[in-house]
């Protein structure tokens, strides 16, 4: 499994941003290998983190190559005040079953 973590600082979002964001979200969910996503915001520094989970690197790269994703990436400076993307391989998932999370560990009590 792979995780693509998109961390960014917000500027002003406009209608074009929201249109592209919704189109990219729909595209991701329609692609094979998409497992889910979650978002976090750090109130201390205002950074937002969106984490997308994929069953393979090839499937993740299909979203990266998607034309609307490329369009948004080219225009990101209109809406973002900086960003980072971290692509990582998930090696292990563990914990208990007391929280509902899309990455529930297998065999959790």
UniProtKB/TrEMBL annotation:
The protein's name: Antibiotic biosynthesis monooxygenase
A GO term for molecular function: monooxygenase activity
InterPro entries: Dimeric_a/b-barrel
Source organism of the structure: Acidovorax cavernicola
Alphabetically ordered keywords of this record: Monooxygenase, Oxidoreductase
């Amino acid at each position: 499994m792979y995780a693509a973590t998109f961390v960014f600082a917000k500027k002003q979002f406009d209608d074009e941003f929201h249109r592209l964001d919704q189109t990219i979200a729909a595209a991701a969910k329609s692609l094979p290998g998409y497992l889910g996503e979650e978002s976090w915001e750090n109130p201390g520094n205002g950074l937002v983190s969106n984490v997308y989970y994929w069953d393979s690197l090839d499937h993740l790269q299909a979203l990266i190559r998607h034309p609307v994703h490329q369009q948004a990436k080219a225009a990101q400076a209109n809406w973002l005040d900086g960003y980072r993307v971290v692509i990582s391989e998930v090696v292990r998932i563990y914990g208990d079953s007391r929280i509902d999370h899309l990455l529930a560990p297998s065999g959790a009590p």
